[in-house]
Task: structure prediction
Amino acid sequence: MKLTLKVWRQKNNKAAGQFETYNVEANEHMSFLEMMDVLNEQLIDDKKEPVSFEHDCREGICGTCNMVINGQAHGPQKGTTTCQLHMRHFKEGDTITVEPWRATAFPVIKDLVVDRSSFDRIIQAGGYISVNTGQAVDGNAIPIEKDVALKAFDAATCIGCGACVSACPNGSAMLFTSAKVSHLGLLPQGEVEHSRRVINMVAQMDKEGFGMCSNVGACSAECPKEISLENIARMNREYFKAVLTSDVK
Amino acid sequence: MKLESKIPKGALDTKWNDYKSNVALVAPNNKRKIDVIIVGTGLAGASAAATLGELGYNVKAFTFHDSPRRAHSIAAQGGINAAKNYQNDGDSIHRLFYDTIKGGDYRSREANVHRLAEVSTQIIDQCVAQGVPFAREYGGLLENRSFGGVQVSRTFYARGQTGQQLLIGAYQALSRQISLGTVTMYNRHEMVDLVVIDGKARGIIARNLLTGKLERFSAHCVVLGTGGYGNVFYLSTNAMSCNVSAAWRSVKKGALMANPCFTQIHPTCIPQSGEYQSKLTLMSESLRNDGRVWVPKSQEDAQAIQKGKKTALDIPDSERDYFLERRYPAFGNLVPRDVASRAAKVECDKGLGVSPTGLAVFLDFSSAIERYGKSEAHSKGMNASKEQIIAMGTKIVEAKYGNLFEMYEKISGENPYVYPMKIYPAVHYTMGGLWVDYNLETNISGLFAMGEANFSDHGANRLGASALMQGLADGYFVLPYTIGTFLSKEISTPTISTNSPEFEQAEKASQERIEGLINVKGNQSVESFHRRLGKIMWDYCGMSRTTEGLKKGRQMIRELRAEFYKDVYVPGQSNDYNPELEKAYRVADFLEMGELMMLDALERNESCGGHFREEYQTPEGEAMRDDENYCFVSAWEWDDQNPILHKEDLIFENVELKTRSYK
Ligand code: SF4
Ligand code: FES
Result:
């Protein structure tokens, strides 16, 4: 299939970016990134600079890939990362725009590559259970109801890609943060530090310049792991409870 | 060079405990003054960095990713083994030890493997405490499943995302230490050289991938958790940026590379669909618990399927050959990976493959769907119709493997609940790696290697769900002890300066090497060289190997390497963010590693585990090991013309060497 690509090119964080138009020949079995590989091979053959984009596992699990395709984070297919999107979802003659994540808290590094280290800092602010190696009790000493374990698991499948932030008109990181708060808070192991965790993670989120949540719901709709909005509601509840009852400042 | 394995004396099952009670310790006040560099933040690297940070060492951790949460450990699907015997089905530390030794075709060290089996149980406890959401029974207890090559259920799992959940657990533990200031994290920093001073590993040169600048980092010792080298084959299930460079740069500084030819070809991957393909995707081995592997009995049927004139559904049961069940009745579809892969290749070589390329076999869930559906109907006391049974069975299969089926459908465009999956073997894991002793220390003093980056635990073939186990065992429970043997002697060594001639020289050499690649200014892309290297490796050093092929392959790689340095084209600058350049220096190292693999495979005149030499097989096509002459670890010292082979004899005192049989 013959395609026209409009790709965001930006030399670095300081430079202004612009769209460049390219023609590529793809086939329907390719993944979207393999189609981008074809474009880059073409550019390299012409001794031009290839498009920088990030990717690694190409299996939808590492959370590295990030493209806004035709205005949608990770493209048109629901519950799918950019790397798992295949060209059979496009047709001959299509024009496709490709942009990086758009969010203040994710500055562009080059072309389609952005800096998501703000996510790491949110986790560092409390997205863990404080247990040193060797301190654990026997695994079966902590029985967990199957349904609770499944709920925690659903929240834990977040891959930290940042599509939720890019999709949100306010650039909010509520879905990402609440997924971690839910994952750990739902489990008995994580309960002890729960209040402190919620307060500190939310504070870090604000500090990084992520926007407020105004219940648009685009985050969950474009999340490749379909993380549920329920998590945001849960975090809001827990946050207010924690602020009212805890001494953590 | 005499290779000292430093295995402690004493009985196999008390060695590790005795060692732990006697190992030299570093006092807390001294730990604060000791710097440790850890390269790589996958399961091994992140768990080690977190644990050493907790202990009070000054840790500097490095990853080339944008975040320590991205390493390829994250993609492991099926599970993690542990000898918990929660199922009361006869499992024990000894059985896990024995299965691993046997599964590895008697080419690993008894003492290392036993230690691995011992600490396996602690890993599960640790991960549960961290909040890893393992699968649970209705009673709230941990659930297990079985995996290839064993007859007990000892695999703990988190749907098909076990690696992800374990890595996130380690990443969170690491994040906690970063916030406490015990670990300094260097994201987007790639090790490009090892710095050795007076025979000891004292630092690294890292390239800041954002600026392209080389930076110097010193420490009292250096630990590598940098993964395997499967990407030498170009197409593999590894992530795109997995590479051998950290290990290979260490080899260039004198470390030995052990058993490089032991590579694992995983039987259940989604087959290649075209020339543009950039990587292959694994379908978890856990699927073989319920999937049956088959090809048509007749070539006519196979051809009709290849041409798209028939589908699997048109082939009646009587015309299907469930070849694993036929050849290996005792283990059936659950034979180890090397055996399953070779069997699939044999059928495809006979022209019985089922994809347009002829390189695929079916993995069929219809029997499982029916079985589960029937038992569900039975438990509900229903007199169910066939459709109802299938609908109920499909639901159960979906609950078990839903995300894998979905992934299959996304990639192949076919619905695996209706049409059986098509699978073919692909490179997945490398058992070989840096030679280490019992302390996980390489022959360069102060240089340690963990996880897939070392060679020590899986012999010639790794069992499923054991990679996660080894990565975390090394990082959480082994290295934090064994590193004391080295560091306890370093407590009065002051902070290592980065101004020494050794640092200077290493930085200069790296700069020249990297500039050199840009300055070739040839006409062929890095990718095209990598693809050609992969093809040579797969054709001559893949699932089956011959003397002639290996000799030819080695020669071809040498020629390819010469062409690479004459005609590669790397766009952009070295002092800039430049992903093409990163690829270039990684491929340059693969070009040497590939050659060493060919040589190792050529020297090993036997078939064992993942290493199958056509000359050494039984009349039924099973591997023929030669314990008389090859019961050793090959540890290679690199030399551009004639790499030198050192041998460490493997001594088995607790298990009897037997022909591995899964019949
Ligand atoms: S919540 Fe979804 S979109 Fe946001 S980072 Fe996690 S996986 Fe990505
Ligand atoms: S490349 Fe890993 S999720 Fe897309």
User: Anything to note?
Assistant: Chain B is about 40% helix and 15% strand. Chain B has a mean pLDDT of 96. Chain B touches chain A through 79 residues (CB under 8 Å).
